[in-house]
Amino acid sequence: MHRHDRPGWHTDSRGWYPRRMRLECNIDRQGREVRGLLGVLCLGIALVLAFVVPPTPIRRAAVVLFTLGGILGIFEALRGWCVARAMGIRTPL
């Protein structure tokens, strides 16, 4: 398979770039459940870090990252859309 045959990618004079990511359903029920569960888990970890762990710059960054990851996971579960799959990356669920 040639590089230009990869699904999810286009090429032109500017080089390689991913196709436009549409918010179309691209995961099944099981994938939605897993993403929703991981999203809720990430938000739970963010809450524990925010209120139990003593404040440090690393803790603040971890809280932000876990919160953003949790929001993304819940969004993907509700929409039935996976950002990685929209970019052409194969995921097991």
Order of helices and strands: EEHHH
Report strand %. Answer: 5-15%
Widest β-sheet, arrangement of strands: 1-2
Mean pLDDT: 86
DSSP strand count: 2
Contiguous runs where pLDDT drops below 50 for at least 5 residues: none
The shape, in one word, is flat
Which structural category fits the helices and strands? mainly alpha
The N- to C-terminal Cα distance equals 24 Å
Report on the structure:
By secondary structure, this protein is mainly alpha-helical. 54% of the residues lie in helices and 9% in strands. It contains three helices and two strands, in the order ββααα. The protein has helices at residues 29-51, 57-79, 83-86; strands at residues 9-12, 15-18. It has a two-stranded antiparallel ribbon with strand order 1-2. Helix 1 (29-51) runs antiparallel to helix 2. The longest helix is centred in the middle third of the chain and has 23 residues, at 29-51.
Can I get a quick summary?
With 93 residues, this protein is mainly alpha-helical.
Give the arrangement of secondary structure elements:
Elements: E1 9-12, E2 15-18, H1 29-51, H2 57-79, H3 83-86
Antiparallel strand pairs: 1-2
Helix pairs in contact: 1-2
Task: Based on the model shown, name its key terms.
single chain; two-stranded antiparallel ribbon; 54% helix
